[in-house]
Amino acid sequence: MDFELPEEYAAITDTVRRIVEAEIKPVIGAYETSGEFPYPVIRKMGDAGLFGATFPESLGGTDAGFFAITAISEEFSRLTPEFGYAMNQQAMTCPFTIFNWGSDAQIERFVPDLIAGRAIGMFALTEPGGGSDAAGAMKTTARRHGDIYRLNGSKQWITFANACDTGLLFAKTDPAAGHAGITAFVVEPKRGRGYRAHPIAMSGLSNCLRSCAVFLEDFEVPVENRLGAEGEGFKIAMNALEYGRLTVAARLTGLAQACLEHSVTYSKERLIRGKPLGEYQMIQQLIADMAVNIPAARALTWRAAWTMETGRPSSRAAAQAKYFAGNAARHAAQAMADIYAGYALADEYPVKKIAAYVNMLTVGEGTPNVQRILLAEDALGIKDTDRHPVRNRARGHLSR
Ligand SMILES: Cc1cc2nc3c(=O)[nH]c(=O)nc-3n(C[C@H](O)[C@H](O)[C@H](O)COP(=O)(O)OP(=O)(O)OC[C@H]3O[C@@H](n4cnc5c(N)ncnc54)[C@H](O)[C@@H]3O)c2cc1C
Fold this sequence. Notes:
Distance between the termini: 43 Å
Number of strands: 12
Order of helices and strands: HHHHHHHEHEEEEEEEHEEHHHHEE
Structural class: alpha+beta
CATH superfamily of the largest domain: Butyryl-CoA Dehydrogenase, subunit A, domain 3
Low-confidence stretches: none
Bound molecules: flavin-adenine dinucleotide
Largest sheet: 4 strands, mixed
Shape: globular
Number of helices: 13
């Protein structure tokens, strides 16, 4: 008997399956061909409550909690990794960070539209100089002129930046102050001038849900859109990544699960020397490792969700889950490719696409080395990963 989701979460994953069957599968091919951003699909996901799990009903959320967002993220990624991409922009790193750190006016103005899918979100931290040292590499500046800030610089790999209505963007208000000089802004690219976003060509990933290079030239942001105080941006970004790692771990688990399911089906169908592949012990070893790694990744991910659900410090648990799920998914993607062998390269099979999303998610929200550094320094007593006070408005913790 496997670890089972409580009934309410099983119902949520049924909703994900229904949306994928009814709203995504019939149209995804056309969007992939045209490259058009699938606004109506994101809207339907929002209407179904799939982005609102960690938000109160007063903002249009479902208040279903962190276990629910975990279940939704895993199932989306298992079935359609392209749309799993939306979980952080529409449900977690973008709106949850505004909810967590924003004023009442900012929360009311921005969060309901994001979680309903009426506004497209983004989280713009990484710059061309390197994502692993986001603070050190940050060259983008924000200079205050009366009631506005003027932003100049560039960002790299920013998901949905070409479609964004309401995003979070980090820039230096005091470049000499290192990470203490970073400030967070809620930006509205469609309202201002001086913002350009160009999708980056990446074969394997979606052609309609893209990540972009962003260029800012005197891009104006009103002072009322600053999130938190000047200089609080790095703390806000790190807190956002902690919650983002939960959905990334869940999405990696979903991808690994997809690898196992495809591998099992293929191993039963493919006959070599008159026997199904699955009867060969070396193939069975690949499948056995997947069959153990995946529930272990899921258990760590649910443990991270539990720390958030109960308002505990969650940085360590989220890093552990993200790191382990990344390893499990990488192993599963390679095992699936070994089982499919030559057919892994054929476009008619999902092997290449899943591998591309595994690579993307393993890197996003902190590479494996970044997680190793966090976890090793924690274990060695150099730096407690859970040293920061809990900031989790969904559970009433508002320490700075
Ligand atoms: C498809 C895609 C979508 C993305 N979406 C977003 C987004 O929406 N918003 C956003 O802000 N970012 C986004 N990212 C950026 C992502 O977070 C970065 O790619 C990631 O943080 C790594 O940065 P980098 O690629 O610049 O690698 P680098 O920082 O250049 O690192 C290169 C290698 O060096 C290793 N390394 C770095 N420092 C150390 C060290 N001290 N010790 C040992 N090894 C080290 C890294 O682990 C890595 O293996 C996205 C990336 C991709 C590919």
